[in-house]
Amino acid sequence: MAAAVAVAGCGADSPEKDERGGATRLTVGVGAGAFVAPLETTRFSDAGFDVKQQNVTSGSVAVPLVLNGQLQFSQADTVGALTAIAKGVPLVFVAAVTSTGAKADQDSTAILVKRDSGLKAAADLNGKKVGVNGIGGAAQIAAAAAIDKLGGDSTKVDFVELPPNSLTGAVADGTLAAAVTNRSEGQAEGLDPIIAPTAEAMPSAPLIVWVTSRQYAEKNPDIVKKFAAAAEKANDELSRDPNAYAGSWWRSRPPRSARSWPRRWPFP
């Protein structure tokens, strides 16, 4: 997902305290579905944070909100965040949210197709519409590289940008031939994975990260350090027991094959 943005007006960069319990109030941007899970652990409240979640669909949505102080932290696509930083956007990496697996069975992202579509291999995607949630982001880059590696031609694939919560439905109703999204979520919707794009294209690379603004990081170094530590502990906890803290999304839409919860969730 692209994260090239203009810097918005300055917002609040000093932490707010909850007068009742002394917790530091934070508003953080998260993706849909499984991305909420880290915040459902007790690690952030244990670290003294009162966290309010705000859904963000892409880095182009999240980054301006971080820069103007509406969000203190947000999840963001690593490629988009790096692109923004390279263009001078005052963004700072805080902690990894996910990393890609080194093997296909460790990759929680997938290029998913309808079960009866007849699409089985990378070359079958030539001339087809493939959904991603951001043109120029990690999902498209990984998918294109994986398709080329496995015998397809990504220049002949029509990548289409859609909100992440619309991708599986668009494949199911035939609007898209395939989509790059969460493997387990897609399988729960009756779709089949045919390619593990991040494992093929960039094994073990950071995929999603927590970011904040440089201004906030400079003014609140202790909070940033505590948030990073809490994020790492939450990921460790979820990797050991994916069902222990997963909330209504996970329980209402259990994947057909529940792998161990990795430090690698897709936010393409």
UniProtKB/TrEMBL annotation:
<dbReference type="Pfam" id="PF09084">
    <property type="entry name" value="NMT1"/>
</dbReference>
<protein>
    <submittedName>
        <fullName>ABC transporter substrate-binding protein</fullName>
    </submittedName>
</protein>
<feature type="compositionally biased region" description="Low complexity">
    <location>
        <begin position="248"/>
        <end position="268"/>
    </location>
</feature>
<keyword id="KW-0732">Signal</keyword>
<feature type="region of interest" description="Disordered">
    <location>
        <begin position="1"/>
        <end position="23"/>
    </location>
</feature>
<feature type="compositionally biased region" description="Low complexity">
    <location>
        <begin position="1"/>
        <end position="12"/>
    </location>
</feature>
<dbReference type="InterPro" id="IPR015168">
    <property type="entry name" value="SsuA/THI5"/>
</dbReference>
<feature type="domain" description="SsuA/THI5-like">
    <location>
        <begin position="44"/>
        <end position="243"/>
    </location>
</feature>
<comment type="similarity">
    <text>Belongs to the bacterial solute-binding protein SsuA/TauA family.</text>
</comment>
<dbReference type="GO" id="GO:0042918">
    <property type="term" value="P:alkanesulfonate transmembrane transport"/>
</dbReference>
<feature type="region of interest" description="Disordered">
    <location>
        <begin position="235"/>
        <end position="268"/>
    </location>
</feature>
<dbReference type="GO" id="GO:0042597">
    <property type="term" value="C:periplasmic space"/>
</dbReference>
